[in-house]
Amino acid sequence: MRIARFSIDGNVAFGAVEGEGAIDSGDLVLDIIKGIPYTDFELSGTKVPLNKVRLLPPVLPNKVVGIGRNYAEHAAELGNEVPDVPVAFFKPTTSVIGSGDAVEYPSFSQELHHEAELAVVIGRMCREVPRERVKDVVFGYTCANDVTARDVQRREAQWARAKGFDTSCPLGPWVETDLDPGNLAIQATVNGEQRQLGRTSDMIRSVEDLVVHITEAMTLLPGDVILTGTPAGVGPLRVGDEVAVTIEGIGTLTNKVIKRG
């Protein structure tokens, strides 16, 4: 099931996406969900066209945990070794935006990069999750763009500013709850030109590996997000560019880059 979060007439709700086609095609409708989708829920039967609402980030995470250098070719293209253990970092909630929202080019960077990623959405509070129970705590999957100020990342040992600035974490367009993440095509385009193309089967550590590793250290809450790393092909974004992340079985996350201020 595809579950979107949206606003209409000043109200925010979740809805199940029905139909096939592009977001603005008029072929998709939302069946509004009663309550929140992390527990047992009912569909209201009240339906609205998706192209008549504003899509919001599909979840409001308490935290976004990013994983760096989880694709060998990406590590190599930046001159890095594959780490012995997953490299984890945080993106704050203020970095999260939805499909159609603008990425604001930060004033302190001259080298902004796109990073297409599969995002894992957690569905229940969990800690110290054993591998065999990972599927029980995962709500679903969405597209992410781990937008990175690459020049800042190179000169600052901690990645808080390079990866945590406002609007640096586009998520969307919705969460797909029925998906095997093991071997999905993932790509990024900029102004329609393909930049990244890979498969999630190329990840060094799987979704199961990452959930086990992260929950050894911290409690994850419903709506929290894990970014699983990016394939090779990362590259520059400029003001005016339109960047799109497409993942097989989920859909396309699209954002425009604008000047901050």
From TrEMBL:
<dbReference type="Pfam" id="PF10370">
    <property type="entry name" value="Rv2993c-like_N"/>
</dbReference>
<dbReference type="InterPro" id="IPR011234">
    <property type="entry name" value="Fumarylacetoacetase-like_C"/>
</dbReference>
<protein>
    <submittedName>
        <fullName>Fumarylacetoacetate hydrolase family protein</fullName>
        <ecNumber>3.7.-.-</ecNumber>
    </submittedName>
</protein>
<dbReference type="Pfam" id="PF01557">
    <property type="entry name" value="FAA_hydrolase"/>
</dbReference>
<dbReference type="InterPro" id="IPR036663">
    <property type="entry name" value="Fumarylacetoacetase_C_sf"/>
</dbReference>
<feature type="domain" description="Rv2993c-like N-terminal">
    <location>
        <begin position="1"/>
        <end position="58"/>
    </location>
</feature>
<feature type="domain" description="Fumarylacetoacetase-like C-terminal">
    <location>
        <begin position="63"/>
        <end position="257"/>
    </location>
</feature>
<keyword id="KW-0479">Metal-binding</keyword>
<keyword id="KW-0378">Hydrolase</keyword>
<dbReference type="GO" id="GO:0016787">
    <property type="term" value="F:hydrolase activity"/>
</dbReference>
<dbReference type="InterPro" id="IPR018833">
    <property type="entry name" value="Rv2993c-like_N"/>
</dbReference>
